[in-house]
Amino acid sequence: MPELPEILNLSRQMDRELRNQEIQSVSVLQEKCVNLPVDDFINKLRGKRVGEITHRGKWVFMRLEPEAWLLLNLGMGGNVILHRDREGLPDKYQLLIEFADGAVLSIGFWWFGYVHLVDDEGLKRHQMTARLGPTPLRDPGFTRDCFINLLKGRKGSVKSFLTNQANVAGIGNVYIQDTLFRACLHPLRGVQSLTEEEKSLLYDGMMETLREAADLGGLAHEKDLYDRPGGFEDFLVGYREGKECPRCGTVIVKIKTGSTSSYICPQCQPEGK
Ligand SMILES: [Zn+2]
Hints:
- This protein has 273 residues and is α+β, with helices and mostly antiparallel strands.
- Helices cover 27% and strands 22% of the residues.
- The chain has eight helices and ten strands.
- The protein has helices at residues 4-18, 38-45, 120-125, 127-130, 144-151, 158-163, 175-182, 196-215, and strands spanning 23-28, 49-56, 59-65, 68-73, 78-83, 95-99, 104-109, 114-118, 253-257, 260-264.
- Helix 5 crosses helix 8.
- The model has no long low-confidence stretch (mean pLDDT 96).
- The protein binds zinc ion (ZN).
- Zinc ion (ZN) binds next to loops.
- Zinc ion (ZN) binds at residues 245, 247-248, 250, 265, 267-268.
């Protein structure tokens, strides 16, 4: 599932390739992924010019002129691929956007995703993005102090706090693993019990984990805009059940944490501390 490093990389590539392009035509094969009647969606997109493309959390935000936003979420995963022309389009896709210069963007979801078109007012009311928390690596205001403030007075486990998109946008069950390992925290550790030092370590662990993966173009099993895999695959504890902890050599275990799995070093990340 794509998380912040993959979406950051994808939105940068999209911005570089598509900025100032004019949308010529759109085909929608999966009607449920758009938020308007299909004809309306297509008519509104046609003729629009692409402005800045950025992201918030796991959502790609494409500014369109005149006044509109195309919001893209890949859900469990998928491919957004740029083709120079209609040659070589994938067999399966849910949506195609063709540009005036002949380039074609194909959007395909593994399961289900969203491609929503809203105006400025609609953006404020767009439930799925309006309540997103700050996006690490993107929002300059997301400092250590800002993060420590967010934790104040909060309840629940540190894992559910960090993977809740309303608190911090962009982290899911992939990058949470090494984030918590770097901070020496068990996933079920209560936010309320964290010391100031642990909060600070958690911020560092999160930023380091996300930055490293983003610098390598995201996960090796996810594809970028050019259909190339990312370069990140060396997790510290994530998905390394049965292997040795890189810090202390203890065997890494996979545990159930609510509805999700976690990979931890039981020595470095003790429970109930
Ligand atoms: Zn260890």
